[in-house]
Design brief:
binds iron/sulfur cluster, Deazaguanine_synth (chains A, B), homodimer, 9-stranded mixed beta sheet, 242 residues, 6 helices, alpha/beta
Chain lengths: 242, 242
């Protein structure tokens, strides 16, 4: 059976961001990314520093490990990365999860298409703003968003953009103007991914969150949007695997 | 034209809790409640202390005021209380908002039915747990939830329960067992609704939030749930009208 590189399986924990914020979920984190965002908070998945953690697993292996770690305490699995959409054979895992009536969430930046994305219940497409150092391929992004339009009403998708600065904010407005009918989530960027002082980080990020809210509330071009922090960072700071 | 008692109109601001957490929205807060929860954070809507703020308004008056305050900076209106479901003639406001393509959110405790509830895009039913001092009429709640099943796929509803103690937690489990197919939001109760030290309150509530998460993550009977704080309280503390 074909295998995928997995770097972490953990949970159940609370999804701290985006369209299913607060959801009780298991996490499967795959290795590898086609991007190298300057502020990536999961760079161990692709920069070599987490190489020793990568295990090649079949879909059955992953399902067995999910049950071993999460027991009967989950009904939702989030597949995250890196960029899980690099992996065509994740389709086998998606099929197993669906067969077991597990809901599936995925986050990917919208740079690659896989047919198994059709089957994701809660799909976050998170194009990266200028501060990441990456350039969005809007033609690919549009192709992906177009494909996803045919899905059924129980499946949801959204765009999510992390905001670090004014340029990112303008980028988010551009994206909203291009795709006004797709639910848009704006997220406060965590600009200190190394501190271990969680209390201070929470206060800092809440202050930044308030500033972003203030700006969006005044802006006629960003009306049908949601503005959110990363809840896991407010609680657990930069700790990994919680 | 028939009038409704309105106690506050403000925004746009960010919806701090529940199924549309983070949403940019205007708020219309109606006066009057059939409950008197021990920890009500909007008791000025029903306990007489906000009596001088109540204005009897037609639906047209409310729409005019929403446009005056919010300009072109909103596409979503939240109707809150008190219990807005006490007011049959809110239907006229709902109709005006729909005609103007404004999405509508409502929160009500599920003690009263009104036909205009059929037309709410994002409807939160928040039965009150034991710590409130109130008793849930489950037969009425079931009737309401049954009626709402016929709505279309673009309309959403959820149950939301605020948790202050272990008894509330057990109540939430009971509600989830009664209505397993309705999305359930668990919310950390704010047990200090008078302090003006926002920073300390935020830290206190984040610690309580973490404890609630820990409990839910271990619990096989609460799998398909979302656990959330009140974001507005983390940012603005107990301030009103933000
Ligand atoms: S796309 Fe995501 S995982 Fe890849 S580098 Fe950027 S932030 Fe990191
Ligand atoms: S139902 Fe809501 S508004 Fe009414 S008393 Fe309880 S908390 Fe307050």
């Amino acid at each position: 059976m074909s295998k995928v590189p997995v770097i972490e399986i953990f949970g159940p924990t609370m999804q701290g961001e985006g369209m299913v914020i607060g959801q009780k979920t298991m996490f499967v984190r795959t290795a590898g990314c086609d991007y190298a965002c300057s502020w990536c908070d999961s760079s161990f998945t692709w920069d070599g520093s987490g190489k020793h953690l990568i295990v090649q697993m079949t879909a059955e292996d992953i399902w067995t490990e999910l049950k071993r770690v999460g027991g009967n305490r989950f009904s939702f699995v989030t597949i995250s990365g890196g960029n899980p959409a690099l992996l065509s054979n994740l389709g086998a895992l998606v099929a197993i999860l669906k067969k077991n009536k597990i809901k599936i969430g995925v986050e990917t930046q919208g740079s690659k298409w896989q047919d198994w994305l059709y089957d994701i219940d809660e799909l976050t497409i998170s194009p990266k703003p200028p501060s990441s150092g990456m350039t969005t391929d809007f033609s690919m992004l549009s192709t992906i968003l177009e494909k996803l339009k045919i899905r059924n009403g129980d499946q949801h998708m959204s765009l999510k953009i992390v905001i670090f600065n004014q340029e990112d904010y303008e980028y988010a407005k551009d994206v909203h103007q291009r795709y006004p009918d797709i639910p848009l989530y704006l997220q406060v960027g965590n600009d200190d991914i190394t501190t271990s002082d969680t209390g201070q980080l929470a206060n800092h990020l809440l202050a930044k969150y308030e500033m972003l809210i203030d700006q969006v509330m005044m802006d006629e071009q960003l009306n049908d949007v949601k503005v959110l922090p990363q809840l896991h960072t407010l609680i657990w700071g930069n700790k990994r695997g919680v």
